[in-house]
């Protein structure tokens, strides 16, 4: 969790949307 946060640090706005998709462990976490 900390690793993703560090990478998305400059993009805090996308962080929220990114985590929304990452909510499901089965779903692939893709911030792009």
Blueprint (SSEs and pairs):
Elements: H1 2-7, H2 12-22
Could you explain the architecture of this structure?
The chain is mainly α and 32 residues long. The protein has one domain (1-31). It is 53% helix and 0% strand. It has two helices and no strands. The protein has helices at residues 2-7, 12-22. The protein is globular. The two termini are 17 Å apart. The mean pLDDT is 57.
The separation of the N and C termini measures 17 Å
Number of domains as seen in the coordinates: 1
**Helix amount:** 40-55%
Shape: globular
Kindly provide the radius of gyration, computed on alpha-carbon positions and rounded to a whole number of angstroms.
9 Å
Query: How confident is the prediction overall: mean pLDDT?
Result: 57
Q: What's the helix-strand series? A: HH
Strand content is under 5%
Structural class: mainly alpha
Let me know the largest β-sheet: none
Tally of helical segments: 2
Low-confidence stretches: none
Strand runs, count: 0
């Amino acid at each position: 969790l900390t690793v993703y946060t560090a990478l998305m640090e400059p993009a805090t706005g996308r962080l929220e949307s990114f985590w929304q998709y990452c909510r499901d462990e089965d779903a692939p976490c893709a911030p792009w």
